[in-house]
Amino acid sequence: MGLFDRFKAKEKSRRVVLIGLDGTPCTLVERFIKDGTMPNMAKLCAGGSLLQMDTSIPDISSVAWTSFMTGANPGRHGIYGFLDVQPNSYKIYFPSSRHIKSETLWAVANRAGKRAVVINVPSTYPAQPLDGILVAGFVAVDINKATYPATLVPRLQAMDYRIDVDARKVQQSHDALMDDVLVTLDRRVKLLLELYDKEPWDLFVGVVTETDRLQHFFMDAIADESHKYHSAFRDFYRRIDAFLGQVAERLKDETMLIMSDHGFTPIKQQVYLNRWLVDHGYLRLKENARSIEEIGDGSRAFAMDPGRIYINVKGKYPNGTVEPGDVARVVAEIKEGLAEISDNGARVVKRIYERDELFSGPVVNLAPELCVQSHYGYDLKGAVNKAQLMDREIFTGMHTQDDSTLYINSPASALRSEKPHITDVAPTLLAGLGLGVPETMDGRSMFR
Amino acid sequence: MEGKGLTLWFTGLSGAGKTTLARLVETELRRRGHKVEVLDGDVVRTNLSKGLGFSKEDRDTNIRRIGFVCNLLARNEVIAIAAAISPYREIRDEVRRDIGNFVEVFVKCPIDVLAERDVKGLYKKAIAGEIKHFTGIDDPYEEPLAPELVVETDKETPEQSAARIIARLAELQYTAASASAAADAYSDEEEAEVRRRLEALGYV
Question: Model-level pTM?
């Protein structure tokens, strides 16, 4: 509103900054503060609060970041994974920003006349128009569709901006992947700081994805000081810390938050839930099936990454076999069976949630009947073409649900004492902007 | 049907939600494969109509200019969305007469609700006399007599209003009746790339 901009500029309001570090565990930040790897983070914490945070279940980026940006649970926002199944066909689709059913944090801020710069938040592709700037993160493909407004694209290209690390580099070598991680981080930081400095904004959201990529492939390196990549891992976090320092030195009176969307821990085993369902007679797949699209007759359940289990209900799916009245019985049976899975005597499954325990809202009908949560080290997978229940692949790190990071540049006395949940971040940012929590959000501001 | 140009004109008081609705409708129309441009009255005032003030004459000139550009766009198969207070009925009707394929949406919200909401404190300033020529306070607003659609932004959410606008456009045969005609977010080629990237991280 051009006429009004003149007046708006005179109004004094506190800006808010959120820096996202995809997949950075709170316990790792604490360790790196103690051992001197992250001196800037240490300084920030001296004047603020570092909190361990719970994230969404499932604890993967698409669900977690959407829960962050909407302040809502998947029953409201509609994103349950990187992949989903169309009930009328079993056809796999990849949910995009267009599938998000509830309002984003920046839309709420825009409505109050606050301009937003939103860079590299996963699950924002294709970029939706807003008052401000948005460059979408994972899984963005085409920079033109990832960027709003389009006039920003030449600037991104001139800076050699990269949307993502090419994780396929690991096929060449771990060195090649590490190089790619570092270059991508460098370009990302350049863009974040440039837009921070040169764009007008009230709400700045900038996410670094490289942390997650590093940890998927190098998580074993941090525990083991003799590991070839141990110092490279630490050096990478020194760079992250330097970036946080660059943001910190720009702060005037802004509210500043740092967060991760989930934690990470080393993998002991990958666990293929569809293998278990096949072995226990719940799932039949066509020969050489590569995905759930090739589900066979007589199947009662199937699993999707990471620990989502869907009952093949008659009337819901074309090949459904379970009568709606029988769903509760099948659910109970599967829960009992999964709880028994063990790896050399160690329990694999920590807890199994039923739909109603986790989700509520207008799109709860899209939710899986069960969400399985594993103990640390057992990475639940949805692959269908596995010959055994457990195996190791190239990945060395897996996500955790209860060890996300939340930093707020306010003393603990100004904050609620409950453990934060990822849906609390958007209400906290809105509170920083002087705005209330819309009814569409489940979370609460962390400010007292 | 695709490719038929038109001018979609939002009129209403400051803060009623014209820009918000223009952006929502723009997004949906693009998703459906239409070419779309938004001419936001406030943005236009910083370039096309720079220097014009808020007298009736200047306001009329501003609206004629927006109408002129909308017409150029619409005849090139673009859906031109104008979001401008456009308070005077006569000039809106003149634009409608001159350019054809014109759909007028009255973005209605009672002034007391707007003054109460007053997100930017402008109504307060206008009421205090600190801003002159403020529509609805010391300048008139003439409601349309026969708009193609009225949306009441104090009674419906922006998403509901946008959905009603799309439905009306479908009724008038400017866009497809169902969103399933709309393109998917990912093209087949992109979908293959998404799958490869998810595979590389172990999600597929």
Answer: 0.74
